[in-house]
Amino acid sequence: MNVESLLYIYLFVCAGMIVFNIVTAILLRKKDRKIAKVSEGFRRSVVLQLDRVRNGLEVEPAHKQYLARKLKRVGNMIAFDTMLEEMYIDNSLCARKYLSELGGVFVSLTIQYSEKNSTEAAYFPYIIKKYRLLADNSFPSITGLLMKLLTNPNLYCRENAMQALYTTGDCDCILKALKIIDNSDLFYHDKLLSDGLLQFAGNHRQLDDAILACFDDFSTDMKVALLNFLRFDSGEYCGFMESLLRDAQQNEEIRYSCIRYFGKYRHMPVYPYLLWLADGNNGLNWEYAAIASSALAIYPGEATVELLKKNLCSPNWYIRFNSSQILDRLGLTYLDLIDVMEGHDRYAAEIARYRFDRRKLLEKEAVTQ
């Protein structure tokens, strides 16, 4: 094939892409206009009901039937959502009261959305979460659908369902959901769980205690996610974390999570053990020393400094890097590390010099700003 033919093929592909983009833009614009038109139809109906709610009256049954019929289609649900966003801006209190009377409507929609494909089904729990429809009312049929969606292969379905369940404020409901996720074969990233649990709308102390009460029932991966959640949620569980950390039979990832917990909350009874873990010559995997070295940032003292200086000579780069980072955070000067800077370990001197150079650069930037 000669160059001229390749050029024509290239031009044909470019022309095809341009046509595709134009057609897509036209279709999207048409779709937006349709959503706006449907939203306006919803608005005319909802405004009348908001006036009733504002005057202390209930939403009319005919309006509920109208919504139950219309909202079966995802496109109409999107239009309804668009309209509600504007209503919330105008009068959030009245809009919330209006939505609180639509529980029966959303209960009736659970069957329809449970039979839709994953992408469309994911939108239903999104609406439940967005408007916190389960915050003040318990609807077993809606909760049941959300539990069912937790086993859906589509990640958006599972995450939206969990986000909706967090708004219930029900500890038992969350524990049940966690066990469903844990028993399924589907991958669920631990960060999604640990960050999501922080959004729990109920009493966090009760949730924490409930998790600890059945902690041993979960798999290792789920335990790690729960420990990460506890680290960001509360510093009240040092005793529990210490017992896990000192148990050499525990999975290493669990013990790593415990070390990170003590890097956030100071617990002096575990300090000597952290020093031992941070020693790169303790015979354990290098991850223990690397993570424990970082945890020592909130345990300033001579023993901490001496161990971190020793770790600067570690053959493991991560241990050296973390130790130098914490020494810098502790505010050590060139004179404090003179024995390292003028020692025989070139790598230790280089990483210490890097920290000093970086500190000077940051101080210079702070002055200029």
Number of strands: 0
Derived from helix and strand composition plus strand pairing, the structural class reads mainly alpha
Low-confidence stretches: none
Percent of residues in beta strands?
Answer: under 5%
Mean pLDDT score: 89
Q: Fraction of residues in helices? A: over 70%
Distance between the termini: 60 Å
State Rg.
29 Å
**Count of individual helical segments:** 21
- Main β-sheet, in a few words? none
Topology pattern, helix = H, strand = E: HHHHHHHHHHHHHHHHHHHHH
Give the overall form.
extended
What does this structure look like?
The chain is an all-alpha fold. The protein has helices at residues 3-54, 61-70, 74-90, 92-100, 103-114, 118-121, 123-130, 140-149, 155-166, 171-183, 190-197, 204-213, 220-233, 238-246, 252-262, 271-278, 286-295, 302-311, 317-329, 338-341, 346-368. Helix 2 (61-70) packs parallel to helix 5 and helix 8 packs antiparallel against helix 9. It is extended. The model has no long low-confidence stretch (mean pLDDT 89).
